Amino acid sequence: MGEGFHICRTCNGSGEMTCPRCGGYGTFTSGETCYYCYGKKTVECPSCKGTGQFDD
Q: How far from 4 is each of 1, 8, 10, 48, 54, CA to CA, in Å?
């Protein structure tokens, strides 16, 4: 059985990751705002769903 919560290794506990679509720039080379992160440069971690940790 599990021992509780553990830090997410994918995002190192931050709950966010660099946007994979724009590479963390927030815009594309065309100057358009990234449609995936909406210019924030980061997105919610898909592994922990933005919590920064996961339950064992």
A: 9, 13, 18, 14, 8
